[in-house]
Structure formats: C-alpha cells, structure tokens
Design a protein that fits this description.
Multidrug efflux transporter AcrB transmembrane fold; single chain; about 300 residues; mainly alpha
Length: about 300
C-alpha cells in the first residue's frame, strides 16, 4: 500500500502547478533517513530488513504512564485515522481556475484507479474541489433562474399583448444587457459568486418593468394613431421616455452608492447593477422602438 501511495504522490508531484505531496509514505521515508543519521541515500520506504528498526520511531514514548507521543508519531497520525483504515495524501496546488481544474482532477483520479484495485476507495477532496462544486452550483443556479425568469416573463407578455412578435421584441432588449454585463464581468475579471449573481436577477426585473411600461403605453396609443406603428412609437417615446429616464437615474443612483463600500462583493454589485440598468434603459428606448418599426416593415412587405 505504501509503495502505491508513494507512486501516486510522485505522479502528482510531476504535474504542473502542484507542490510535493505529503503522506504517511513520506513520513516513513523521513523515519528511515533519520534512522541512518540523515543520509539522503536512505530517503526511501523501509524494506523488510530495516522496517523493524524504523518502527521504533512510530511508537509513543514509554517514559511515564501519561507520556505524550513523540512529534514524529503525531505527524504520522495526522495522516492516518485511529482505526488505521484510511490514510490521507495532502498536496497544495496553484489556483488554475475552474476550466483546468476538472482535467487535473480527472488525470489524478485515473492514475489512482490504475494503482489501487477495487478493494481500495480513493476519494479526491479539499478546498479546490469545494470551490469547484460551489462554482458549478452557482452557474447552474444562474442558468435555471434566468431560464425560469424569461419563461415567466414570456408568458406574462404573451397574456398582456397577445402577440408573438411583440413577445420577441420585448425579450431581446432585456437579454442584451445581461449579455453585455456578463462580458464586462469576464473582461474585468469579476468572479461569479453569490453577491455578483444577484446582479442578473435584480437588473432583469427592473429592465422588464421598463419594457412593460413602454409597451403598455404603446398598446394604448396604437388605436389612437390608426394602428400606425411608427406614429404610435413616436408618441410612446414622447410620453414615457422622460419618465423612464428619470426612474432609471434614481435607481442607478441608488445602486451606485454601493460602490463606496470597501467590501468587494457589495462594490461589484453596485457598479455591475448600475451598468446593467444603463444598458437596459438604452436598449428599451432605442432597440425596442427599432424592433417595433421593423415589425411594421414586415407587415408592409406581407401586404
């Protein structure tokens, strides 16, 4: 078992971004080297001949009934459980990111499966895997929340306006700000974490409110303009444009205050939400009317 554990440790040490692992096998090597007065040539696993002598290093001190274990024994027991059924191989690695980490873990797991048969169970764990699973959980949660949010918004839009074309016209201006914000986060190196994931949900809700306000007014003025989409869009912009801008400025000012925070998550939430609201206001006042006008051109072509 120690030879297999040592082989796995040597394999991990050869990988890039990995430090030299520590395990009970390394402890036995140190014990043998210490037994031979620090000779580096004897830095190896004990064999059958010197195993009995090296074993003296692994026993607790006999001096007194309550004598404490020697430091070397304590070190070894930190890598083996009390029942001597499980052992631990500890290694430090560089922060390689969530894209490269799964490949490294898969490589180590495959090598471990080659060295140890089915009677052994090799489990990879640690803070790196915890962070990786946490990142996957956050990303999957973000995908699901955005999907269900857009689905619910689509159902509400379809119920309010009874038009598939207006449905698509309303979703696109709300999708663009989220895409731009995600791109800016990647460019600026802002990680996805619970505090930054909130940006998408909060900004999406506010952006949809702007869209609904614009389209409701558009639906009301459309009959007044003989169903002329161009005239209805112009009148809607005149009636709701300033109110949308003022409302957005107030909301943006409210989130910009978070930028004064020294806490990184709150700071990122402030400027990312403000950025998303700025883009959402522009898309709803520029892109949404353009899409409605394109819808009129499509109708004219059909006629």
């Amino acid at each position: 078992v120690y030879n297999k554990l040592d082989s796995l440790a040597m394999f991990i040490a050869e990988q890039p971004n990995m430090n030299r692992p520590l395990s009970v096998a390394e402890g036995l090597k140190f014990a043998k080297q210490g037994f031979y007065e620090g000779d580096s040539l004897n830095y190896a696993l004990p064999n059958a001949f010197d195993g009995a002598f090296v074993g003296e290093y692994l026993r607790p001190s006999k001096e007194g009934a309550g004598a404490a274990e020697n430091n070397f024994t304590k070190m070894l027991r930190s890598f083996v459980d009390t029942a001597s059924q499980s052992t631990r191989l500890s290694v430090n690695m560089a922060d390689v990111g969530t894209q490269q980490l799964p490949f490294i873990l898969d490589t180590i797991q495959k090598r471990a499966d080659q060295l140890f048969d089915s009677s052994y169970k090799v489990t990879l764990t640690g803070t790196s895997i915890t962070f990786l699973e946490g990142s996957h959980f956050i990303i999957n949660g973000l995908k699901e929340s955005i999907f269900w949010a857009f689905l619910l918004i689509a159902v509400c839009m379809l119920y309010l306006f009874r038009s598939v074309r207006i449905l698509f016209c309303s979703l696109i201006p709300n999708l663009v700000p989220l895409v731009i914000t995600a791109g800016v986060m990647g460019w600026a190196g802002v990680p996805l974490k619970p505090s930054t994931v909130l940006v998408f949900s909060v900004a999406l809700g506010i952006a949809v409110d702007i869209t609904i306000r614009f389209l409701v007014n558009y639906k009301q003025v459309l009959p007044e303009n003989s169903n002329d989409i161009s005239l209805a869009v112009q009148q809607t912009i005149r009636q709701t444009g300033l109110s949308i801008i003022y409302t957005s400025l107030v909301l943006i000012a409210g989130f910009v205050i978070f930028c004064a925070s020294s806490f990184g998550g709150t700071f990122a939430l402030g400027w990312l939400t403000s950025l998303t609201l700025v883009v959402a206001t522009i898309t709803n006042l520029v892109l949404l009317p353009c899409l409605l006008l394109l819808m009129q051109k499509a109708k004219n072509k059909n006629i």
